[in-house]
What we know:
The chain is α/β, with parallel strands linked by helices.
Amino acid sequence: MFERMREDIQSVFHRDPAARNAFEVVTCYPGLHAVWLHRVAHGLWVNGWKWLARMVSNFGRWLTGIEIHPGAKIGRRFFIDHGMGIVIGETAEIGNDVTLYQGVTLGGTSWNKGKRHPTLEDGVVVGAGAKVLGPFTVGAGAKIGSNAVVTKAVPAGATAVGIPGRIILKSDDELEAKRQAIAEKLGFDAYGVSQDMPDPIARAIGQLLDHLHAVDGRLEGMCGALKSLGSDYCGKDLPQLRDEDFAGVVKEADDKPAA
């Protein structure tokens, strides 16, 4: 038991840079209290003490603002950050090293008995306010974006965003390298094509960069052909894009976007 508690405390340090020392974590992290109380409630539940298990669970909800049904199965190093408003249903199953943020619901879409809540495999991260509803599996290492509503299975390593949840699979490394190269050539910040951006924006920017890369390659080919014919038409370099040229259209930290 104490080994599991030490694991839980260490998991807080690994996933929350605000944690300063073990005493602070033990006394000031309601997510940790909720997990420990759930273990007590779950032990009572599986041993037939259903009412007492529900009472312990209800006390945990009153104390932490986190509602975990005592029937839910939770793995090791489960981390709840902030936690207020989290709801985890009776037949939910959570693997090891899973992280949930505030306002998450692992709920059902049916009143029928049996499996009706999601299964989160190892290493899943669910963002603030997300709703994962139904008896399906979220694969290992997957991520659910903040405020997403997910009602279908999410493959391992993928990301689900939006309402309804849309699946974003891991992008091709070679394609990403090409996009990064053309972005750097244009003086475009590389973060604009990362997977951390919202889905529609990232996709649109990625397609624009793919198009620019293709146009750039075609121009180089045409210049090579003209040069072989004795023309110096392509002898001049393309003009550089300067940061100051975009000063009026870049949104600063405290300014509104340019009209």
